[in-house]
Amino acid sequence: MRRDVFQAIADPVRRDIIDLLAEDSLTVNAVAEKFEISRPAISKHIKILSECGLVKTISKGRERHCIIVPEELSRVSAWVERHRKLWEQKLDSFEEYLNELKRKNEADERDK
After folding, report:
1. Is the pLDDT confidence value at 1 over 80?
2. Which of 51, 67, 80, 99 could link 3 by a cystine bridge, Cβ 3.0 to 4.6 Å?
């Protein structure tokens, strides 16, 4: 089953795991030590991240090492960038509107 990247990053624990793995690859146990939830719960989060392609696990002997796959985050980045531009345009328009109201109010005050 291939999960959606956006579904995976919706969970704050999974976002924290991504942040950890962005700094360095870690074993599943090392990841679990950073959280106050059970190791099986961390394993489930890592499985979800693996299913959507954000994390790859590699077996080295008896340990499983987790490695971030940053290319998959490019889809998220592109989506955020698209929407960031849209919101910036809307906020710029709103700012212009507020500035116009302020100028009008200042002119009305001077005319009194």
Report:
1. no
2. 51
